Inverse folding.
């Protein structure tokens, strides 16, 4: 009896089918947003770490400041700053752009620190050997040091990237039509929590494989001592 | 420049919003003081359960951890805040947030403690048992203290993430720092309260970030 009520409340198939198209729409928007965040964040983080290799004091100061502030700032606060605080200054952006920018900057800060730590971890002898074979600074970085550094970054970067992509749900707070937003508005229309269940299922379908992938990466690229 | 000061760092507005921000800050602090110990305790329990020999006990724990790691915390919070009342369980906002955080963070802390426990050589366990400690005592006095020390950087890192994550409680109208800042902004039509909240978060969490940075460089340099 209790179970039947539970199933009726949270797994109302009719309601779920009715709102399925909306959730599917949100599903693809979540994927788009996540991919955009991952590419922009990692590219920007790598660029900053490489810039830091040049060891220009003033530049490095700002990179460290950027990384520190963005690692200390909750992403939702940053989204609100972009979405609610900037328009009075004449800078307007959609919820999608605000969420993308906030999450990508946050990921860039973490990625920069991870890449930088990895670049430092490559032994100095590798630099010297590469330079002594006639490679210039850029080529030594590109063909010798960076490939070794990137390998070390894979596990921590994968974990961080997964954590940040789950932040796409924060977009719901600024009306980005991703999964959570669609589920919440379906809930508002239907006053039926099955819509929330449907949203939850969509997240599991999307992220359980990603979490498993993260586990696999962790064992595959485990540091060998 | 004037426009920026007027809109983002307006001292008059800041004075008006200060009482809101202060009470929001206290709520955020309270939230951290509740959810961090809860998450650590839950995580330790999860990690200890995952070391059990019995497959039938271990499998559900792995499923629990993967399930809640796959769930965005905000989704979990919304589900608890809006879904549970249909079960006749009408939790106050604070309890809903605490429950969501317990489920989410205990799986993260659990993974960290598990890695720590796995890093302790078997011989430690055997040696402790041979001195006459029972299994529970061995875990409490020998294994867990060493395991914890080995994963301190990860524990700090996760705690930083949890502290930042408390800001999502604003979505279910718990009056913490970010919620107070949004309210202040709505009342004054000025962005200063949100900027101020951002500055408060950064000021409070920066020391943790610095500490972590130092740990990370040391850790990665060892490999």
């Amino acid at each position: 009896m209790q179970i039947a009520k539970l199933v009726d409340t949270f797994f109302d198939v009719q309601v779920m089918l009715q709102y399925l198209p909306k959730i599917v729409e949100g599903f693809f928007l979540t994927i788009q947003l996540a991919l955009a965040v991952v590419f922009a964040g990692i590219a920007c983080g790598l660029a900053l770490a490489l810039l830091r290799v040049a060891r220009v004091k003033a530049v490095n100061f700002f990179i460290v400041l950027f990384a520190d502030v963005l690692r200390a700032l909750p992403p939702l606060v940053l989204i609100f700053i972009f979405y609610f605080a900037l328009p009075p200054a004449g800078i307007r952006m959609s919820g999608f752009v605000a969420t993308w920018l906030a999450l990508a900057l946050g990921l860039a800060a973490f990625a920069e620190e991870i890449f930088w730590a990895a670049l430092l971890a490559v032994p100095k002898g590798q630099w010297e050997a590469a330079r002594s074979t006639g490679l210039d600074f850029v080529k030594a970085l590109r063909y010798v040091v960076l490939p070794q550094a990137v390998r070390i970054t894979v596990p921590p970067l994968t974990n961080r990237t997964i954590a940040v992509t789950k932040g796409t749900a924060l977009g719901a707070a600024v009306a980005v039509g991703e999964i959570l937003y669609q589920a919440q508005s379906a809930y508002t229309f239907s006053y039926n929590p099955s819509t929330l269940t449907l949203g939850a299922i969509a997240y599991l379908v999307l992220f359980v494989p990603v979490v498993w992938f993260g586990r696999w990466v962790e064992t595959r690229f485990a540091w060998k001592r | 420049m004037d426009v920026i000061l007027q809109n983002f760092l307006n001292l008059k507005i800041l004075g008006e919003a200060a009482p809101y921000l202060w009470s929001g800050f206290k709520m955020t602090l309270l939230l951290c003081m509740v959810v961090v110990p809860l998450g650590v305790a839950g995580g330790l329990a999860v990690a200890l359960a995952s070391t059990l020999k019995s497959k039938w006990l271990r499998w559900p724990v792995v499923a629990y951890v993967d399930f809640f790691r796959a769930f965005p915390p905000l989704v979990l919070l919304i589900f608890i805040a809006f879904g549970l009342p249909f079960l006749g369980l009408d939790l106050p906002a604070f309890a809903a947030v605490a429950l969501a955080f317990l489920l989410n963070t205990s799986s993260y802390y659990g993974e960290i403690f598990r890695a720590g426990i796995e890093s302790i050589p078997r011989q430690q366990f055997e040696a402790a048992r041979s001195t006459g400690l029972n299994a529970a005592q061995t875990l409490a006095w020998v294994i867990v203290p060493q395991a914890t020390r080995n994963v301190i950087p990860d524990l700090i890192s996760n705690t930083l993430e949890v502290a930042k994550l408390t800001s999502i409680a604003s979505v279910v109208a718990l009056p913490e720092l970010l919620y107070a800042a949004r309210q202040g902004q709505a009342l004054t039509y000025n962005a200063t309260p949100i900027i101020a909240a951002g500055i408060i978060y950064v000021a409070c969490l920066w020391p943790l970030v610095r500490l972590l940075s130092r740990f990370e460089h040391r850790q990665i340099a060892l490999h």
Q: What stands out?
A: Residues 78 and 172 of chain B are 7 Å apart (CA to CA). Chain B is about 80% helix and 0% strand.
